[in-house]
Amino acid sequence: MRAPIREARRGQTLVEFALVLPLLILLLVGIFDFGRAIFAYNTINNAAREAARLAIVDQTFADIRAEAAASAAGLNIDPTSVQVDFRDSDTAAAGSCNDEVGTPTVVGCIAVVQVPYLYDAATPIIGSLVGTLTLTGESRFAVEFNCVDGGTVAADCPLGG
Asked: Strands 133-142, 110-119: parallel, antiparallel or unpaired by DSSP?
């Protein structure tokens, strides 16, 4: 009579394992997706910082956007989605110094670079729960040098033109 009881316990363990396994896998994949989101957030913040560091000496919008996209190469950022503007340090209104780009008065303005990224979870279940997340990296630095002179790159540009 002991044999049937032992077999029943093995079956019970198998059923419990079958109930817990999907939850365990979902938890592990959720940790994986969370790690990917943190990686993407850190990458776009680094890309914004690198592009803003370029913007403080070279105010060429195309170069700044290209630097942001190159710094976030693992995420395939579209350079046209990167937002660049120059703000007056007193008012901090978006684009308040954009008219001064290419003139010596741009020095002292704040270069603001924003890098957006649409994050989708790799797991369909988690993706349907959280949807598409818009992550944005932003960095601000004061402009230190006027590299663009009347629409052309100045000869004494620190980047070598």
From this structure: antiparallel
